[in-house]
C-alpha cells in the first residue's frame, strides 16, 4: 500500500487537507493545554503534519504502513522518530500528549469495530491527552461509485472507488503512470457511522465530540467524512 510512485504523488499533489487542517489542530492542542510533549502521528504519510508539529515545539512519533512514505517523512523531519507498521498493533509510547490520525487513516483495512484501537490509544495517552482524527462514514461515495483522473509533472493517476454501503466497505482501485512506468494498487476500507464511533470512544474512557464541518474554518472535509476530538480526561 502506497508504494514508491503513489507515495511520492500523494505527498506533492494530495497534501491540501493536512496543510489546511494543521493550524486548527495546533490551536486545539494549545486550547487543551497541550503545548509540549509527544504527539503520535498515525498514518503519517510523508510527514507534512509531523513537520508542523516539530516546528511548533512538539516531539513526534510517526507511524505508517508504507515504508516509502516513511522514507519521505524521515527526510522531511529528521528530528522526529518514524516507524513502519500497522496502527492496530504498533507499540505506542506511554504518556503521550496527543494522538492524531488525519486523512481517513482508521478506515484503511479497518476491523469491524474500532473499540479495541480506542482502548489502546486511551491507555497510551496521558490523563489530559487528546485524540484528533477523521473517518469516512457509510455513504462516503454518493451513488456507490466514482472515477477520477489527476495528472502532474511526469505522472498521471486514475482511480475508481466502489462502495458497498450495506456492508460498510469501500475499495479504491488506483493506477499510476510515472515516467513511463505503470503501477496499480487496491485500497480496501471499512466505513464507520459517527454515532457508533462516539459510543465506542465513550466506552473506552474518552469524552468525544463530533466536529461539524472539519477541524476549523476553511477546513471543509469531503462529504461523508467526519472529524472528531476526544479528550482522555
Topology record:
Layout: H1 4-13, H2 16-31, E1 38-42, H3 48-55, E2 59-64, H4 67-76, E3 81-84, E4 96-101, H5 115-124, E5 125-136, E6 145-152, E7 155-164, E8 169-178, E9 181-190, H6 194-203, E10 207-211, E11 225-231
Parallel strand pairs: 1-2, 1-4, 2-3, 4-5
Antiparallel strand pairs: 5-11, 6-7, 7-8, 8-9, 10-11
Helix pairs in contact: 2-3
Notes on the protein architecture:
- The protein has 233 residues and is of the alpha/beta class.
- The chain folds into two domains: 4-138 and 193-231, Rossmann fold, CATH 3.40.50.150; 145-189, N-terminal domain of TfIIb, CATH 2.20.25.
- Helix content is 27%, strand content 36%.
- It contains six helices and eleven strands.
- The chain has helices at 4-13, 16-31, 48-55, 67-76, 115-124, 194-203, and strands at 38-42, 59-64, 81-84, 96-101, 125-136, 145-152, 155-164, 169-178, 181-190, 207-211, 225-231.
- Strands 3-2-1-4-5-11-10 form a seven-stranded mixed beta sheet, with helices on both faces. The chain has a four-stranded antiparallel beta sheet with strand order 6-7-8-9, covered by helices on one side.
- It starts with a helix and ends with a strand.
- The mean pLDDT is 95.
How many angstroms separate the termini?
Answer: 35 Å
Instruction: Please identify the structural class as seen in this structure.
Output: alpha/beta
Number of domains: 2
Along the chain, the helix and strand elements come as HHEHEHEEHEEEEEHEE
- Quote the beta fraction: 35-45%
| Physical arrangement of strands within the biggest beta sheet | 3-2-1-4-5-11-10
**Uncertain residue segments:** none
Average pLDDT, rounded to a whole number, is 95
- Range of helix content: 25-40%
Q: What would you give as the CATH superfamily of the largest domain?
A: Vaccinia Virus protein VP39
What radius of gyration results from the CA coordinates? 17 Å
CATH architecture of the largest domain: 3-Layer(aba) Sandwich
Shape: globular
Total beta strands = 11
- The first-level CATH class name of the largest domain: Alpha Beta
Largest sheet: 7 strands, mixed
CATH topology of the largest domain: Rossmann fold
Number of helices: 6
Amino acid at each position: 500500500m502506497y508504494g514508491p510512485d503513489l507515495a511520492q504523488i500523494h505527498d506533492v499533489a494530495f497534501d491540501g487537507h493536512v496543510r489546511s487542517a494543521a493550524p486548527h489542530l495546533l490551536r486545539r492542542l494549545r486550547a487543551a493545554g497541550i503545548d509540549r510533549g509527544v504527539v503520535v502521528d498515525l498514518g503519517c504519510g510523508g510527514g507534512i503534519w509531523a513537520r508542523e508539529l516539530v516546528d511548533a515545539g512538539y516531539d513526534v512519533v510517526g507511524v505508517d504502513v508504507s515504508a516509502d512514505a516513511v522514507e519521505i517523512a524521515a527526510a522531511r523531519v529528521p528530528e522526529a522518530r518514524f516507524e513502519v507498521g500497522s496502527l492496530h498493533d504498533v507499540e505506542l509510547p506511554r504518556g503521550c500528549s496527543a494522538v492524531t490520525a488525519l486523512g481517513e487513516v482508521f478506515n484503511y483495512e479497518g476491523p469491524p469495530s474500532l473499540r479495541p484501537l480506542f482502548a489502546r490509544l486511551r491507555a497510551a495517552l496521558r490523563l489530559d491527552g487528546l485524540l484528533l482524527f477523521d473517518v469516512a462514514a457509510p455513504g462516503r461515495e454518493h451513488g456507490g461509485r466514482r472515477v477520477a483522473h489527476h495528472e502532474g509533472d511526469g505522472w498521471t493517476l486514475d482511480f475508481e472507488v466502489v462502495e458497498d454501503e450495506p456492508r460498510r466497505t469501500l475499495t479504491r482501485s488506483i493506477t499510476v503512470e510515472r515516467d513511463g512506468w505503470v503501477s496499480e494498487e487496491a485500497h480496501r476500507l471499512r466505513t464507520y457511522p459517527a454515532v457508533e464511533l462516539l459510543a465506542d470512544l465513550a466506552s473506552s474512557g474518552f469524552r468525544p465530540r463530533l466536529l461539524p464541518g472539519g477541524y476549523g474554518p476553511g477546513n471543509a472535509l469531503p462529504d461523508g467524512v467526519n472529524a472528531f476530538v476526544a479528550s482522555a480526561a
